[in-house]
Write a structure and sequence with these properties.
This protein is mostly helical. The chain is about 55% helix and about 5% strand.
């Protein structure tokens, strides 16, 4: 979302290219256009941020999901099936963030950037499924 210069949830080609740069992914101009065109199947000149996330999202294997579930249970001290995003952010180690590894973002910027990928409810809480999606995306 850091690359979304308009804040409208969609990326033009320049923002799309910046998104990959911030993640430390180096694509040629042709590769960038090919991926952008694939995601922009309606030829609008924009791709929705959520479509980019869905396309790049990884899959958690059962053992990895079990680890996330165990960590979530530790963070869910009230046993309500939801955890404040602030608790998750405090637990996140940004040293492995692609932007930090590439030397593009500071640790603080990486922590802030990573939190943007987490889907919360209206009160800023995250459920297990949202946490699993986030972990699959960032790892």
């Amino acid at each position: 979302r850091r690359a979304d210069s308009t804040g409208e949830g969609k990326l033009g080609h320049r923002d799309f290219k910046e998104c990959f740069r911030l993640c430390g992914v180096q694509l040629s101009a042709d590769e960038t256009y090919a991926v952008f065109d694939w995601l922009d199947s309606a030829n609008t000149g924009f791709v929705k941020y959520n479509d980019v996330i869905a396309a790049l999202e990884g899959v958690l294997t059962p053992p990895r999901r079990a680890i996330v579930k165990s960590l979530f249970a530790r963070m869910d001290t009230r046993g309500i099936g939801r955890v404040p995003l602030s608790v998750i952010c405090d637990s996140y180690n940004a040293k492995g963030h692609p932007g930090h590894v590439a030397g593009v973002l500071s640790l603080a910027e990486c922590s802030e950037d990573a939190a943007y990928g987490v889907i919360t409810d209206d009160n800023g809480y995250v459920d297990l499924e949202s946490l699993c999606r986030w972990v699959a995306l960032i790892t």
